[in-house]
Amino acid sequence: MTQTTPVIELRNLTKSFKRHGISFRAVDDISLRIQAGETLALIGESGSGKSTTGRLILGLDKPDSGDVLFQGESLRTKSAKEVRRLRANLTVVFQEPFESLNPRLRIGAIVEEPLVVQGVGSAEERRERAAGALERVGLTASMMDRFPRELSGGQQQRIGIARAIIGKPRMIVLDEPTASLDRTIRRQIGDVLDELKRDLNLAYLLITHDIGTVRQVSNRSAVMLQGKIVEIGPTAEITEDPQHPYTQRLIGAELPVSVAKPRRTSIETKEAAL
Ligand SMILES: Nc1ncnc2c1ncn2[C@@H]1O[C@H](COP(=O)(O)OP(=O)(O)OP(=O)(O)O)[C@@H](O)[C@H]1O
Ligand SMILES: [Mg+2]
């Protein structure tokens, strides 16, 4: 049987940190695959290792052992230049839209910035693509001259998404993209993400505490506990008929939203680290 190459594959990925001088595994021997057009939800209690998994995929953290394959190619054996080229296909959307948008830049400049960094297109082409990206996320090009503070939370998150898709990525890591939004807006952002995934054949890793968003957007779900995946399967099965007692508790408790304050790091710093 031939199987299509996954957009991303994690093989026995492990990452340790130190807490009070003692090393512990934030991510402990994780293996998973995500295909184009597929959303894998990553759920689990606060501190279970979800964001670290996302950061390992994005190359913001380096694994201690194991491998990340992008479209079948291991990132370990590549030169720094090749890794940068491949990583241009991987982008990220964060929880706090406002904190992840540079307040001093106008929307147009924020959205087109990834193209500037990659040296893609003329100023005019970039502006055109920014306008196209804004329309794709349900906004209008007339917003380009405004500043992030003038927008609502939902609009700000749409800007974050427009910025994430402008470079034509193959995969997006969505780290709690709806956590700071109210229920109606969550649903709208879920719709935008779902539509983009279908139109652009994207792969998503969706990190979220919100079971509503999991049900709305994801095909499969993986449940993390203390750095390990304890259950993985079709979202309908995981949410309707969870097998692991921990998953049953999580679903039963409707996953209370993380109270942890996100670290204040701008997209610019994170992308500079890539
Ligand atoms: N850079 C770091 N240095 C030390 N410890 C870290 C670092 N990053 C994460 N950790 C620790 O690793 C564990 C997993 O963190 P991670 O951010 O992946 O959890 P999470 O599942 O995303 O949680 P939340 O739902 O609260 O966002 C936590 O105990 C966290 O404190
Ligand atoms: Mg997290």
Question: What does this molecule look like?
Answer:
Residues 255-274 have low confidence and may be disordered. Helix content is 37%, strand content 24%. The protein has a single domain (8-273), classed as Rossmann fold (3-Layer(aba) Sandwich). The chain has 10 helices and 10 strands. Helix 3 (107-118) packs across helix 4 and helix 3 runs parallel beside helix 5 (153-165). The longest helix has 18 residues, at 183-200. The strands form 2 sheets. It has a 6-stranded mixed β-sheet with strand order 6-7-8-3-9-10, sandwiched between helices. A 4-stranded antiparallel β-sheet has the order 2-1-4-5. It binds adenosine-5'-triphosphate and magnesium ion.
Q: Which molecules are bound in this entry?
A: adenosine-5'-triphosphate, magnesium ion
Ends distance: 36 Å
Instruction: Name the average pLDDT.
Output: 89
Strand content: 15-25%
Q: How would you describe the shape?
A: globular
Q: Which segments are poorly predicted (pLDDT under 50) over 5 or more consecutive residues?
A: 255-274
Total count of strands? 10
- Number of domain modules: 1
What is the H-and-E element order? Answer: EEEHEEHEHHHEHEHEEHHH
Q: Specify the number of helices.
A: 10
Q: Could you give the order of strands across the largest sheet?
A: 6-7-8-3-9-10
CATH superfamily: P-loop containing nucleotide triphosphate hydrolases
What proportion of the residues is helical, as a percent range?
Answer: 25-40%
Structural class: alpha/beta
Q: Any idea what the radius of gyration is?
A: 18 Å
Q: Which second-level CATH architecture applies?
A: 3-Layer(aba) Sandwich
Could you name the CATH class? Answer: Alpha Beta
Largest sheet: 6 strands, mixed
According to CATH, the fold-level topology is: Rossmann fold
